[in-house]
Amino acid sequence: MKIGIGIIGYGSITPFHVKSILELENCKLIAIQSSNEEKRRKISNEIGVLSFASYEEIFSQKTIQLIIICTPSGFHLGPAIAAMQAGKHVVVEKPLEITTARCKKMIDVSKEYNVSLSCIFQNRYSLDYLKVFDSVRSGELGRLLMGSASIKWKRDQAYYDATNWRGTIKGDGGAVLINQGIHTIDQLINLMGKVKTVSGSIRTLIHNIEGEDVATATLEFENGAIANIEASTSMYKAFPEKLEIHGEKGSIILEGGKIIHWESEQCGKLNISNTDLNSGASDSLAIDYTLHKRQLNEIITAIINGNTPPVNVKEAIQSIAVIEGIYRSSLKGEKIDIKH
After folding, report:
1. How do residues 71-110 score in pLDDT, each as one tens digit?
2. Residue 51 near residue 35 (C-beta atoms within 8 A)
């Protein structure tokens, strides 16, 4: 069985999905929607698939069972709901949406129309991250104590000026936390568990944008652990993102998606020689599509088998809740409880 796929929106991330779909055996790309006539013409000539100006035209295609949303972050809600109401399963590029309220609307519609809804967090599918996940779940690190997520990247003003939505509240929901930082924040939460409270501070110091380009936060988890987040797109020099997980029996550190330190009572200190970093620290497209391909393959396989696709919406909304809490904490100057 092959799942027919339609893509809504043709931005910088769309080619990652296109390449992935073309190489997977369990799906077929049927059509792409874009409001840009030049892009539609290019799609038809280069890929040989249908192209439409409006997403309603895609929904009328009976050979399409799954819709992938690649519109700007703050414009996921409309096409996602319309797709689900048309009986299509939906995959949304990160973030699921820009507020928990908008996410919950999408989740409610998916339940009402009995279709699957999932979100792309492809960094969960790096081989090194999967090793860390398995280690944490097996209890190798013991009780988790501390964690940290560091996203100290660089984006120039031209990056934000290239679109009418990046760094805006309506289109992006903010800036560095909800756009660049959300991948590492998602991994941190996925490893350490549910967040109980957040205290955060955000600033816009360098760029001419509505959202933040410098942010810090402290998270308190329900299991008693604590973690820090540092995020910026204003660094003089970009650094690969770093994720640290510390337990009573061991510690693991990833940098640029690769393990750079692993030491535990159970395994001792492992020799790490992998230096092939895969980071978008200074270039948002300086990554390949392999991780998208891995996640899409699992999502499509789950749909075919009637299972809940990864990353499910209960997980996808958690990072939004935390980031939303950081924004509120900075505005109010107080600790914010995270509701689940």
Report:
1. 999 999 999 999 999 999 999 999 999 999 999 999 999 9
2. no
72-111 in b/e form (b: 16+ CB < 10 A) is bbbbbbebbbbbbebebbbbbbbbbbbbbebbeebbebbe
> Is the peptide bond preceding residue 95 cis, with omega within 30 degrees of 0?
yes
Cis bond before residue 311 (omega within 30° of 0): yes
Distances (CA, A) of 318 to 21, 103, 178, 313: 27, 10, 12, 9
Least confident of 197-206, 213-222, 277-286, 328-337: 277-286
Token pair belonging to 290: 């392999």
Closest listed residue to residue 192, CA positions, set 152, 213, 219, 232: 219
Residue 87, φ and ψ in degrees, nearest 5: 85, 15
Classified as helix, coil or strand, 291 is helix
